[in-house]
Amino acid sequence: MIPLYDNIPSRTVPVVNYSVIALCSLVFLVQMSSTGFQESRSIIEGLGMIPARVFNPDLLIEYPNGSALDWSSLALAESRNRAASESLVPAFLTPLTCIFLHGGWLHFVGNMWFLWIFGDNVEDCLGHRRYLLFYLAAGLTASVAHLLTNTDSTLPTIGASGAIAGVMGAYMVLYPRARVLTVIPLFIFIQVLALPAVLVLGIWFALQFYEVLATSADGSGVAWWAHIGGFTMGLVTMLVLRTRKGLKINVQQARRPVQSRFTGLRRR
Predict the structure, then answer these.
(1) What is the pLDDT of residue 39?
(2) In whole numbers, what is the pLDDT of the chain averaged over residues?
(3) Which residues, at least 6 apart from 141, have a Cβ–Cβ distance to it below 8 Å?
(4) What kind and span of H or E run contains 24?
(5) Sorting pLDDT into bands at 50, 70 and 90, what band is 118?
(6) Over the stretch 252-265, which tens digit does the pLDDT of each residue have?
(7) Is 78 left (phi over 0), alpha (psi -120 to 50) or beta?
């Protein structure tokens, strides 16, 4: 299921959401413009979260000759026989710095697209300052969820997925009846439907649990528990905050028209 857009326009300019997207874009461009394999790898090791190092900052991690690491879509399969480079920041800060890194174009574009669709409305309700704190807290919660379920992992964890999952959990509470134009591939056809946000996001959340049962985090290259932790934090936080007077929820604002379409396109 690929969301295209929702029908709830923001009442304010989501400057924080735009800024987060811009910062992630800048960091990703730095990653992609690295002059060599080792430089790119050093950025990931230096700012990414390595669970074993967070619990033991002095730990030396060695990748002996003949080993091949596949970090998600990075496919960094070059062997080496030296200790991993030290963090560019203290190890206890990497649960936050890792949420601004990405492992490839698909990883980056997918995350930023989801943040673009759902982040503006959450910022609209929370306000700029609280949205910034909320986003960082969701990212940190997602990192902690991954840490607690992968305490001995020596693989760098990167990506904004956990923080964005928090935004999605918040959106589901704030706008459950919003309509989301969604692409659903069905065999050789592509179905485009306007679905309730609670259905789109609820199915996405359920799939994270399915993936946890079907695969391991290191084996699949995806930190599923980070997604679950971030989404749960966003959902619970909004359930608590929406009863407070300071939270401005306006689901009656003008809505963009969203229409379902059926397209008989073949997939290859």
Answers:
(1) 61
(2) 80
(3) 162, 166, 229, 230, 232, 233
(4) helix 15-32
(5) very high
(6) 444 555 554 433 33
(7) beta
Lay out the sheet containing 261-263: strands in order across.
Answer: 2-6, 179-186, 189-196, 261-263
Q: CA–CA distance from 199 to each of 18, 181, 237 (Å)?
A: 26, 12, 20
Half-sphere exposure of 190 (CA within 13 A, CB side): 13
Per DSSP, the three-state class of 2 is: strand
Residue 229, Cβ neighbours under 10 Å: how many? 26
pLDDT at 105 over 50: yes
Q: What is the pLDDT of residue 83?
A: 36
If you ran DSSP here, which 8-state letter would residue 127 be given?
Answer: -
Q: Where does 2-263 sit in CATH, by number?
A: 1.20.1540.10
Every domain of the chain and the residues it spans: 2-263
Three-point CA angle 229, 13, 134, nearest 5°: 20
- Least Cα distance to 5 among 171, 164, 165, 194 occurs for 194
Percent of the chain with pLDDT over 70: 75
